[in-house]
Write a structure and sequence with these properties.
The complex is a heterodimer of chains A (117) and B (142). Chain A is mainly α and 117 residues long. Chain A has one domain: Winged helix-like DNA-binding domain superfamily/Winged helix DNA-binding domain (Arc Repressor Mutant, subunit A, Orthogonal Bundle), CATH 1.10.10. In chain A, 54% of the residues lie in helices and 5% in strands. Chain B has one domain. The longest helix of chain B is centred in the middle third of the chain and has 24 residues. Chain B is globular, with a radius of gyration of 18 Å. Chain B has 142 residues and is an all-alpha fold. Chain B is built from 7 helices and no strands. Classes of the chains: A mainly alpha (117), B mainly alpha (142).
Amino acid sequence: MEHDSPKPAPLSAATLHILLSLAQEDMHGYGIIQEVARSSEGHYRMGPGTLYDNLKKLMDAGMVADARRSATAKQDDRRLYTLTAEGRGALAMEVDRLQKIVRQARRRLQEARPRSV
Amino acid sequence: MTESPLRSAYRLILRCHPAAFYERFGEEMLWIFDEERKLGNGGHVIIDGTVSLLRQHCKARCAPEPSPMDYEILMGGSGVGVARVMQAFVLFSMIVGGLLVFGGAGHLLPLAIRPSDSSFRCTISLDPPHVATLPSTLKLLR
């Protein structure tokens, strides 16, 4: 019998939003907060404590790293964060997982017919 | 220019975070606080900061990062004392923060104790009795 490698745990909402924001471009902390608020249409606005707690976890896991700064950006002393290849892979796996759930949900909703009383 | 009580409270909350976390993210968090305050979200960020403070200390307690200083504190037998001081400090800062945010007690701020700084742990660790007991403890372990 073939043993599958252990599946990674689903990402939390905050982690997923951070990775999604960084998939677009390198950003500083406040940029991530603004992007998350924009993409969730204002429904999800994380505070700096939540953001940096998750960023620290992602950086420790090697999914996010400090971005190299361009000459123009060096004048700005805010740190930029970038998505690593590992982070991109984790995000792709999470999107696949969510897609499967959505597919399954659609199928079940189509199969379920309202019962006649 | 004097700092607003709300900003002072947030700075205090940040300073109470574990040293490594504060040194890495403290300045950025304070900058975000300033930006959010302009939008009227200062209270929300204070609450978020307080939750973050508890979370980071719980994490540090559950899975402390190994460092020579931590080792020394544990071997010296003063680990419980340090933990008690930290707990009291966190509790005190939460009460002061709560008063500042919800009670409008800005005048209490000058009475608040100075926030801990990055040398806090070193000061305790380098206490002569701890240093003196370390070689003998290490010998026993071998």
